[in-house]
Amino acid sequence: MIKGFIFDLDGVITDTAELHFLAWKKLADDMGWKFDREVNEKLRGVSRMDSIHIIREHNNAQISEEELVELATLKNDIYVESLDQMSPKDYLPGAQELLNLLRKEGFLVALGSASKNSSKVLEQLDAKKYFDIIGDGNSVSKSKPAPDVFLFGAEKLGLEPEECVVYEDAEAGIDAAKAGGFHSVGIGPKDRVGHADIRFETMKEATLFAVKSHFDTLF
Ligand code: B16
Ligand code: MG
Fold first, then answer.
1. For the chain, which domains are there?
2. Identified catalytic residue from 8, 90, 148, 169
3. How far apart are CA 172 and CA 77, in angstroms?
4. Which of 32, 102, 151, 204 is deepest in the core (most CB within 10 A)?
């Protein structure tokens, strides 16, 4: 029986991708590095340090690990400052309605994000009230596609993976959900999350009704 839901943050609850893009772009410009939306797409759901490694490789830049950590911190400062402009208006369409309904129907709910800034993002959205457990980049050391952040959430909720549905917008996020034995809902195009148990183009279509209809006997 499905008793809980675990949500990725960026790309599922809200769209911070643009703010991440602008912050990486500023850093890349300052460094004289190439960085565009195509490269940014490769960073979806990927941790901060894995992201800067991808950008370094894209630029063939010879730079030490120590400097990379410093640069990632600079990018993060820009990103965190830009979160100040985020407000409860910035839920992705359908996300807040779903979270409200899950509360009303008594499901357990956890966050399962790669971000180390999830607390600030949830505060800006006034979304902490929807989550029983926050699992994020501070909770585990192995990031997606490892299932650790979802396993952390399930364990803290007191549930088995097969009792939880994971919502994810990243390829590595669906890989992580499947590796952990969770039911998965993919948000986005087929070439990205087509391997999820069920896929919707946007959160607007990924309603509780649609998910219940798909998993039917599990509810
Ligand atoms: P931070 P998610 C991910 O969030 C983003 O999709 C990804 O682009 C970002 O690099 C990662 O969080 C780390 O974020 O720098 O704030 O720790 O999709 O897992 O909610
Ligand atoms: Mg995401």
1. 4-14+91-218 (3.40.50.1000), 17-85 (1.10.150.240)
2. 8
3. 25
4. 151
Question: What pLDDT digit, counting tens, does each position of 60-115 carry?
Answer: 999 999 999 999 999 999 999 999 999 999 999 999 999 999 999 999 999 999 99
Q: What whole-number distance in Å separates Cα of residue 35 and Cα of residue 50?
A: 15
Structure tokens at 15: 């769209």
The residue with tokens 């490789």 is 57
The pocket around ligand 1, CB under 6 angstroms, is made up of: 8-11, 20, 43-48, 51, 76, 113-117, 137, 170
Position in ligand 1 atom list of the atom nearest CA 76:
15
**Residue 17 CA, closest ligand 1 atom number:** 8
Tokens of 14: 């809200």
pTM over 0.85: yes
78 exposed, middle or buried (CB, 10 Å; 0-12, 13-18, 19+)?
middle
